[in-house]
Please model this.
Amino acid sequence: MLEMLPFFLIAIIILYAAIRALRAEGLLMSALWLAAVSAAIATMIYMLSANQVAVIELSVGAGLVTILLIFAIGVAGDEPLSDTPVVPRVIAGFFVLACAAIISFAVRPFELIAVEGGISTHGSIFMQGRDIDLLVQVVVIFSGVLGLVGILAEARAPLDYPVAGEVAARRDQELLAMEQRSEHIPASPDSASKETLIPDSPAVDD
Amino acid sequence: MIISPLTISLLVVCGLTGLGFYGLLVTRNMIKLIMMLQIIVKAAVLGIVIAGQGNGQLNLSQNVAITIIVVDTIVAVVALAFAIQIRRQMGTLDIRELASLRG
Model:
């Protein structure tokens, strides 16, 4: 029973951190609790003797994904939303409990069943035993690169630069050009005749 | 009922999956939805490792788990890119606001 104690502790940490990630007010705190979930899961996977998966889960799940989430929160902003859920909490809880009951019923007769046949090494499966999933991974990683381009793209949205602003700027330039042009035009004969109509002008005294 | 490390891990898998589904149903913020999706996938990875440990094919399950982690990371990147672009275009991350869009 004593050897179960680390598993109990890690399980409690995982579930507590997941609940905090769900109920955290800010997105940043939620991302940090998610990193804690990932680190605790990596520890449990390591205790189940799956060392390679534990290392990758710790570096990718707790490291890379957390950095991406924090960067995305920094770009998009931590928008406070109201507490009104999409689905009422009672219905959501009932639905989740029903799903959990089905899953528990499916895995209830869980036994250690040894598979017949030789056991391949991790390296041979990873390097030789993969076929179409390797191609799928290449395509998916390419999609991920495009996604990173989408994250790092410039914030030049069409709604930020409406057409009316461009029209107004062009009109201002035209008005400025008209003012500059009018300064270079000499006084017209009409303006001189107007001056003669003024009673106190020197032309009338003569 | 025999309490073994695999049983405890299976309970963690069930709990994490339930929490993730509950978060998907309740949450309105798009970035938080991605986080809930991450929780579900982490539970799936843990479940695959448990299954491999249970039937003696740990190496095969490790390969599958690594593939899932890679794909999950890419899904998170693309989803975050969508969320950022939607925030720039629409000015909100609330999925209820986006549900009012008509094509």
